[in-house]
Amino acid sequence: YFHGWIYNDDSSSYTYTYNANEYFNVRMKKNNKNKGFSLIELMAVVVIIGILASIVVVNVAPIFQRAYLEKIRADITQVSKALELYRFNEMTYPSSDQGLDALIKPHDELKNPFLFPENGYISTLPLDPWGREYIYEYPATKSSSYDLYTLGADGLEGGTGENTDFGNWMQ
After folding, report:
1. Whether the bond into 139 is cis, omega within 30 of 0
2. Which positions of the chain have pLDDT values less than 50?
3. Residue 80 in contact with residue 88, Cβ under 8 Å?
4. pTM recorded for the entire structure
5. In this predicted structure, what is the pLDDT of residue 135?
6. Is the CB of residue 1 less than 8 Å from the CB of residue 18?
7. In Å, what is the CA distance from 39 to each residue of 36, 42, 48, 52, 164?
């Protein structure tokens, strides 16, 4: 055992002890008690983060719905331009049976196959925001030239809000 004066870092003074090991053990125990967070403190932080996350989700959800609508408009405009180029070269739109694939690769019924672009009228067909192909119908039932539309988030005809059918007759 060691006994004598030991310098105390916390108070810049000396302490007399008969057992230096005992002094350092007591000092270590004091410091270990205050380390870490209590369960209540952690629970409070988790609750606050949950509240903030729910506020963010509620405020961001309408922005995604608006982005979906803008994507649909851009896709329909892009495919419509390709359909107009096809009609300019072939004097008619592709039939419903030929579908939008007629814009990508030539088919046997082309009137002017030499006018078909090497890479097609459009490089790839876009998918709607929910990952489904756009529906194409010619002759049209809802617009004056052709129908190009998506059935919305639910994939069923009709609906409201996000489930509404969006098509070229709406532009």
Report:
1. yes
2. 1
3. no
4. 0.66
5. 95
6. yes
7. 10, 5, 14, 20, 48
